Amino acid sequence: MQFENRSFDYLIIGGGTAGLAVAARLSEDPRVQVGVIEAGPSALNGEDGGDITVPGRYGEAINSKYDWKFETISQPGLAGRSLPMPRGRVLGGTSALNFMAWNRAHRDDYDAWADLGNAGWGWDDLLCVIKIKYEIATDIAAHQKDYKSSYQAEFNGTKGPVQTTHTKEYGPTHQYWHDTMNALNIPSSEDSLAGANYGTWNMVCSIDPSQQTRSYAASAYYAPIAYRGNLHVFPNTTVLKVLLEKGDSGLRATGASVCHDQHIWELKARREVILSAGTIQSPQILEISGIGARGVLEAAGIEVKLENKNVGENLQDHMMFASIYEVLPKLSSRDDIIGNPTLRAAADHAYQTSQTGPWTVLPCSVAYCSVSDITSEKERCGLISFSKSLEHQLGDDSVNTKLRQHVERTLLPTPQGRIEYIFDLGNWCPFFESDPDKKYATMLQVLQYPLSQGFVHIRARLDEADLVSAEEMPILDPKYYLGMGLFDKKIMALARKFADKICQTEPLAGIIKGRVFPPLRDDSNTEDSLSDLGTVQNDEAEKNEQLDDGLMEKYTITDWHPIGTCAMGGSGGARDGVVDERLRVYGVHGLRVIDASIMPLQIGAHPQATVYAIAEKGAAMIIEDWKST
Fold this sequence. Notes:
The structure is a single chain. The strands form 7 sheets. Strands 1, 2, 10, 11, 12, 13, 24 and 25 form an 8-stranded mixed sheet that branches. Strands 6, 16, 17, 18, 19, 22 and 23 form a 7-stranded antiparallel sheet that branches. This protein has a domain at 319-558: Glucose Oxidase, domain 3, CATH 3.30.560.10. It is of the alpha/beta class. The radius of gyration is 24 Å and the shape is globular. It is 28% helix and 19% strand.
């Protein structure tokens, strides 16, 4: 692999979900040279052994050589626990590790970005670029009849590289999902991709329907154009820093210092450096390059080249809780296959010979509910009372205004999905140990618009001999359930109760024997397990509230959807963000950030489709800007 004296028009740092999409679009012009730096290996051509490419084996690449294996620091709001935060260290990035969920946020989510002063980022602006190719199931009419799948042609594209589909086969409990949620007045959505993240639907997945394989950035954007002579991808190569030079016109990015096979090289960029390293590492690379908050940089022994206090701040993530239910023993799940060599061999054979069987099944029973759907009037009044006491506790006028506005929006009886529910057979909970003689199902609940907000920063240098690099684990602190995030905890506690209500509603209730996690309060054996969750109060309601809070603290996990650490600043510019609406880093010529970190506000959706849209729009803006010069 030749690095010496290499120069490109565009140098992209990060060959992940966004980076490869940007590379594909920029390299369409044969007159420009495009370089891509990726810290991980390629998993194309079968190198992954199926861990990545086989849909039903989702999760097997997590905590493998394809994962950065990040962890948060200890979280006071989670009873002192730290949480794993998997991120893809492989060509294709986290699109190679995720669970292939493909949906879009509510149109209001994108319009909120534009309302902050980020022109061109509203729903109508993005629709033309978020219509990545949508391959509907072989017989959509039959699929709609059998599974109540939905599809509206005007909201789905036909020309993009990413293949998406309703899965060919569904698990045995899906047949009950729509009727159960409809019985709870959660309607079935006409199309989950049409700009309303509300209702009950079947999750569309990023799968190539012809091959029944994962469709991800490496297979969709890179593999078909790998032959291009002007596209140069360097796997197993770590970026040390962005090269910055100060001239008459100010600070300019001129390339990057990289490490490959223990050798350090400098790669030059004639036009631009594009940072697509993701929410955790894009701010980290800016900081080790000298762009960030003065205190952070000086503590790490980094020369301050451009001060911006927003780098690494504004970290927002979806929080998740898993409730486990025992189900009828006749139901078979993925857990049975993983634990049984005979069943696994049969699943492998079905997949390899006919692209059928359990390895084509993904969790697709989904519902996005408003808070008014899942709470009583009394509970909503309790939320208002709690928010007022929280305002008094926080005592900051600007923070309290934000909290008050959030509470008002949250409690409006509008069709906007603030809690996502996903139901699937098997035990998805890291805190519950299955009994091999019993069968289980999991109800996941995911908070879509959290108030909890944290940061990602490089670590302080312990002594002068310490080196700071992108290989080092950063300080990852989402601050779950702290500050305004205390309101998040109340919403999640109420959402857990509604999970029980779903599982007690027919026809789903007909296959459920009872909840086994979290343990029932009236069980004789739960006193010890719950005694440390909160101080016992004489008042039963207050006691229950303490217990609910304690359960959230002990068992909330993340849905691995971090965003926002290099956010668009909008009308506030560098005072409020890191990049402008054209994704250019404030104060630096020739440097952009294009990935999930530029989102100023969290969205009500799994972020994959939106990250591709950011990449497509970012690449188009780069091309436009250079055409105008």
